[in-house]
Amino acid sequence: MKKGMKKSLITLLLFIALLIVWNQTEAKVSGPQTIHLRLMETTDLHGNMIGFDYEDRKKTVEFGLSRTASLIKQARNESQNSLLFDNGDILEGNGLDEYAYRSHPLDMANIHPVFKAMNTLLYDAATVGNHEFNYGIDFMEASLSGANFPYVNANIYVEDRNQLDEDDLNYFNPYTILEKEVTDTSGQKHKLNVGVIGFITPIVAEWNKEYFRGNLKVKNIKETAEHFIPIMKSKGADIIVALAHTGLQSDKGLDEKKGNSVHALSKVKGIDAILFGHSHSVFPVKDELQKLPGIDLKTGTINGTAAVQAGYWGNHLGLIDLKIIYQDGEWKVKSSLSSIRPVYRTLNKKSREVIPADPLMEQIMKKDHNDALDYLKNKK
Ligand SMILES: [Zn+2]
Q1: CA 130 to ligand 1 centroid distance, Å
Q2: pLDDT: is 287 or 340 the higher one?
Q3: How far is the CA of 128 from the centre of ligand 1 (A)?
Q4: 122 C-alpha to center of ligand 1: Å?
Q5: Does residue 108 surpass a pLDDT of 80?
Q6: For residues 43 and 290, which has the higher predicted lDDT (pLDDT)?
Q7: Each residue of 24-68: pLDDT tens digit?
């Protein structure tokens, strides 16, 4: 190569290198501040803290929070900012729950077994499911007091026997605003106010008549959301996450048009993400049932709102990855991607891929698990 050519080649390379550096600096300086926030969901655990089938009294790899816990830890490690939520139906459903109700003492020293496990995972918030009411309101209250994280529900009210809405009192805290310290893509720290609101299917009042009648009433999900979202915004919520213990479509017996489904909730302005449960399905999956208008199965949005449903019994972890940017003086969700991760997968006829159980969770549950087995053996 001639000397002059070499020189101009070096100059060209230098120029390109400079251009790259300049571009990167430019992007950092002038681009909007960007936060990646991962929302994680468990739902409908029904007492399944470890991989054990109390019905058949045998171990299983197909469900149990001890395996979901491994997925949670992995998902946390992959992400700079994350929050963990549960969507209810934990206090009734298996032998451990039955033992906890019938023969496990509940006091400050002896919290409900499910919370011994769940508290170790550092949940950020949760909402109640209809099965929380199965053993009565007193048992539910005593049990929930063992949770180290807040419970929210906006549409269960104290029955005051009048038609006035204005004087109605929420039974639970309708919402909470989590002040989350987050790190943006350039390493800068911010305080992001994440509003979390909870809803339950009104069918709960039918299914648990004995406890609801005269004590509690349940209001319409969509209308309740429309009431509270502007209030949460005015109290400083930058983004809003809805925990909805109701299916993609309304329960049988409820009118879909009246707005008690996730599909209806997704149309409420101001909600950025919906984590849902109750119907024991997963979302998003390529499923005929999920071919409803407004659903994008690629990104996992319903009418443009990010959504996820994590199956049941801890058989899946639900994830919503939000890209949030600072624009016009406020944080806005720019895009989202929902996904589900199973605790086991069938690869072919002979083999399957299984997520290992978290040994800490198994250890924590050991005594209550054995006590539950004793209880089940001795019960009439
Ligand atoms: Zn339910």
Answers
A1: 5
A2: 340
A3: 9
A4: 23
A5: no
A6: 43
A7: 544 444 578 999 999 999 999 999 999 999 999 999 999 999 999
Q: What is the pLDDT of residue 14?
A: 60
Cα(28) to centroid(ligand 1), Å: 46
Q: Find how far residue 207's CA is from the centre of its chain.
A: 24
Distance from the alpha carbon of residue 88 to the mean position of ligand 1, in angstroms: 7
C-alpha 113 to ligand 1 mean position (Å): 20
Mean of the pLDDT values across residues 291-314? 93
Q: What is the pLDDT of residue 364?
A: 95
* Matching residue, tokens 């959301």: 225
Give the per-residue SS3 of the chain. Answer: CCHHHHHHHHHHHHHHHHHHHHHHHHHHHHCCCEEEEEEEEECCCCCCCCCEECCCCEECCCCCHHHHHHHHHHHHHHCCCEEEEECCCCCCCCHHHHHHHHHCCCCCCCCCHHHHHHHHCCCCEECCCHHHHCCCHHHHHHHHCCCCCCEECCCEEECCCCCCCCCCCECCECEEEEEEEEECCCCCEEEEEEEEEEEECCHHHHHCHHHHCCCEEECCHHHHHHHHHHHHHHCCCCEEEEEEECCCCCCCCCCHHHCCCHHHHCCCCCCCEEEECCCCCEECCCCHHHCCCCEECCCCEECCEEEEEECCCCCEEEEEEEEEEEECCEEEEEEEEEEEEECEEECCCCCEEECCCCHHHHHHHHHHHHHHHHHHHHCC
CA of 232 to the centre of ligand 1 (A): 26
pLDDT at position 25, please? 47
Cis ω on the peptide bond leading into residue 113 (within 30° of 0)? no
CA of 248 to the centre of ligand 1 (A): 12
User: What domains sit in the chain, N to C, each tagged with a CATH number?
Assistant: 33-378 (3.60.21.10)
Give me ligand 1 centre to Cα 29, in Å. 48
Question: Could you tell me the distance, in angstroms and rounded to a whole number, from the CA of residue 48 to the centre of ligand 1?
Answer: 15
pLDDT tens profile 207-219: 999 998 989 999 9
> How far away, in angstroms, is 65 Cα from ligand 1 center?
17
